[in-house]
Amino acid sequence: MDDEIARPIDRAALLERAENADYILVGEGHTSRCDHEAQATVLRWLATSRQSGPAVALEMVGMDRQPGLDLFNRGTLSAHDVSVVLDWERSWGHDFLAYGPVFSEAARHRLPLYAANLPPGAARAYGRGGVEALDPAHRKYLPERIIPAGEPQREDLREVFEHHAAMMQDRPEGNGTMDFPDARTETADVAERSETGAIPETPRDDARPEQGEESGPMRDESKPVVEESLADGAGKDEEPSGKDTEAMFERFITVQSLWDTVMAENAVHIRRREGAPVVVLAGSGHVDYGWGIALRLAVLDPEAEVLLVAPWRRHPAEQPPAEDVSDVYFYCPLPPGTRMMGVPAPDQDADQEDPPDEITGHDSAAGDAEPMPPSESQEPETPHADGDAD
To answer: Which intervals carry biased composition (Acidic residues) (predicted)?
Structure first.
């Protein structure tokens, strides 16, 4: 390949990169079958390269459902049965069959699966009213403290937030309010938590109820959920004030930070329990640039090595991956018609939806997953964090 184009990475090269990694964060678009095939291939490569394979932490499963995963880990439940026990359709919402390769590889190589997320609805409840709004049975799953977002992540999420705000205002049936994910906390509260790291014990008076499905924190193509409408606040015929909008943004940031912190904290606990590396499967928004889970791991387990693996949507021969999004990439185009932040995906043949049989090189048919290192200019031993390419 030309020097300007990222080269394909083979099994040996990936394993060399992963050899000293304590945490391997593999991003995904939740609806991409190709992404899940690539994740399964990474698991297979890691499992067959050492005496004991990694543990696997799943964003898709709330910690209250760990007993179901324990049964699957012991071989008591089939993949189909575990999907029922996990209440997958209601609690996660994305097609379980797309995740089939991940569960198959875990079962084949006896890789222990762990829940990495809060129980369904817990983050949204926290967003509405803090700890006191949570089901008492769910409070034990909160992290010791919420590790706040760094400035790069805040800037990125503000762009996402403002994009969705503009979309809401432009809707013909728009009601003058904007959509946002569960979050609560005004600027002062966030500033206080940034100093103390404490989770506030009482809800704020301005906490607003929200409506929305009780699925995971990140939806298709790993953009944060900003789609639960305000049921209170600015009137239906008026735009929210600047203060209201900023408060909504801070609540949004708080809950995104809560999700990232919870998954990082769980990964640390899993590593200590298993004494093995941990592969975290999560939406790319939690992985890219190292702004999400990786940033929190740096606080919770500062001596650990973290490897980032992310999907790249444009064919590398046409548009090489950005150098700072991830350490390793795999090529998985978006299915036709998928939208990226309101922009339709580039035209692709229908067969690009087909999942790959293997992670292969650039010469494979479109739709195959292709792990790739960053461009030639990037030092291979230097970990990078990189933003959502979707």
So the answer is: 348-357
Domain 11-121+259-372 has CATH 3.40.50.11550: yes
For position 168, what pLDDT does the model report? 59
Question: Helix (H, G, I), strand (E, B), or coil: what is residue 222?
Answer: helix
Task: Collect the ranges in the chain with pLDDT lower than 70.
Answer: 1-8, 167-243, 336-390
| H runs (alpha helix) in 55-176 | 66-73, 79-85, 88-91, 100-108, 122-129, 151-170
Count CA atoms within 13 Å of residue 5 on its CB side.
13
The residues that bridge with 114 in the sheet, in sequence order, are 57
- Separation between Cα atoms, residue 376 and residue 320, nearest integer Å: 11
Q: Give the model's pLDDT for residue 166.
A: 74
Please count the other Cβ atoms lying within 10 Å of the Cβ belonging to residue 244. Answer: 18
- Looking at this protein, which amino acid is placed at residue 79? A
Q: How many CB atoms lie within 10 A of CB 243?
A: 11
Radius of gyration of the chain (CA): 20
Q: How far is CA 281 from CA 8, 26, 32, 40, 109, in A?
A: 22, 5, 13, 10, 17
What is the per-residue pLDDT for 338? 59
Q: What is the DSSP letter of 2?
A: -
Handedness of CA 15, 18, 22, 23 (dihedral sign): negative
Q: What share of the chain is helix, strand, coil (3-state, %, to 5)?
A: 40, 15, 45
Unique residue bearing structure tokens 């909504």: 248
Return the number of other C-beta atoms located less than 10 Å from residue 247's C-beta. Answer: 26
Ordered by start, the domain boundaries in the chain are 11-121+259-372, 147-257
**CA 85/CA 81 separation, integer angstroms:** 6
* DSSP H or E stretch at residue 116: strand 113-117
How far is the C-alpha of 265 from the C-alpha of 296, rounded, in Å?
A: 8
